[in-house]
Amino acid sequence: MKLRTRLAVSFLTVTVVPMLLIFMAFMGLSSYSTSEIRKNYGLTDQVEVFSANSMQIFNRLTEPSREEIRTQMETDPAVFEDPAYLDILNEEMLSKYAYVIVRKDHEVIYEGNPLSDSEEFYSQLPAYGNGGVDIEGGIYLDGDSQHLLKQMDFEFPDGSRGSLFLVSKVDELIPEVKSMLREMLISGILILCFTGVAMTTWVYRSILQPLSQLQQATKNIRDGNLDFTLEVEDEDEIGLLCQDFEQMRIRLKESAEEKVQYDKESKELISNISHDLKTPITAIKGYVEGIMDGVASSPEKLDKYIRTIYNKANDMDRLIDELTFYSKIDTNKIPYTYSKINVAEYFGDCVEEVGLDMEARGIELGYFNYVDKDVMVIADAEQMKRVINNIIGNSIKYMDKKKGIINIRIQDVGDFIQVGIEDNGRGIAARDLPNIFDRFYRTDASRNSSKGGSGIGLSIVRKIIEDHGGRIWATSKEGVGTEIHFVLRKYQEVIQE
């Protein structure tokens, strides 16, 4: 869930859910409290306690008592001068949060709840005949404290005018209502707090957890530790950030491993070059000392020494050339000059060129061309010659037979030509075969000085072939020989209609 969606859900939850919960709580508490009030106060009709005004509630509470009082006024008004009767009546009214005041003419003769400011309150009581006797009516007295009055007028036996007042304080009427409202307020606050805390916790955790993981990941990288995984399943903005961070970590780890591998290869290259340069230099130095000391006493011996020195110098030159070309591979700056090359003519010239050297070394060279004379490829002639020389040079280097044989075969395979260079050397072990095109990989762990080489020849070959859009592989059998295969795409003219 996106962070923006999560915040929107949180906002709606914080606003809508509390409203629904508060409404449900209000309905539940209202229904329960109304039922309790009706039961406690004998309200048998269907008046709605919380929607009716205070006077309606007061009338409903006192209606049964008022009926009895009215009957008593008609039959025996003298009892309203009897304190004992009035005390009983007042006790009944107190249970309904009201009390009784009886006035005879202008004098209050009974008060069920004496007030500290009685005189002021008495002065506000309505005069005889102003209260009415209707069921829903009543009198509201405002002041320091609000009172509801129900006035019933009658005449005493001596002809005096009497008024009986049922009085209730507004703020004391049905305390269950106040209690329910207080509970509603507390419930609303609790609902709001609970919803707010729940949503805040949800959003906080959804943000904090991936941020904590991200923080720990940055500490790991700061400390140089890249061997960990940042796993965040969320698809929000922070989750996407963590995924990008994980990709960065992977790339950093790969770069670090590449650097370690590069440093290792560089050290290995230096070691290989040092060893392989030392061998011909030592030989050259030995032969030169032999010439200087007069060991080469005959012209034939001197000529042999000079040829050996020349060959060793060529080996050094070839080694330096490989090293120079290797640096171009590392920076992807190999200069290619592509052109159309006739396969038959080009490989014929190459075979003729290397044939003289093979003959001098006593190695039989076979050349078999099975492609048409007009087949052409797009290639860099100089770099392809490097490929052929490196492969043949490798075959010569590891030739262990008295009668060495190297065969070059060129075949037509659809849109490609396939070149195979086969020797009858010592072969390559199956475990080494997949690695022979890797840089610095050498199968002669003992590094016999007679073999020499930098270990980058075949890696150069693979790089050139792949840059030409081709593919290279090898097959071999120990003790029998090795064959290197590579394919190049044929040149085909596009005929426009």
Care to describe what's here?
There is one protein chain. The chain is an alpha+beta fold. It folds into 3 domains: 54-173, Beta-Lactamase (2-Layer Sandwich); 254-333, Helix Hairpins; 334-489, Histidine kinase-like ATPase, C-terminal domain (Heat Shock Protein 90), CATH 3.30.565. 53% of the residues lie in helices and 17% in strands. The protein is built from 10 helices and 12 strands. The protein has helices at 3-41, 54-75, 83-94, 118-124, 175-222, 237-292, 299-330, 343-361, 381-397, 457-467; strands at 99-104, 107-111, 139-141, 147-155, 161-169, 338-342, 363-369, 376-380, 404-413, 416-423, 471-477, 481-489. The strands form 3 sheets. It has a 5-stranded antiparallel sheet, covered by helices on one side. The protein has a 5-stranded mixed sheet with strand order 7-9-10-12-11, covered by helices on one side. A hairpin with a 5-residue loop joins strand 4 and strand 5. The two termini are 56 Å apart. The model is unreliable at 445-450 (pLDDT under 50).
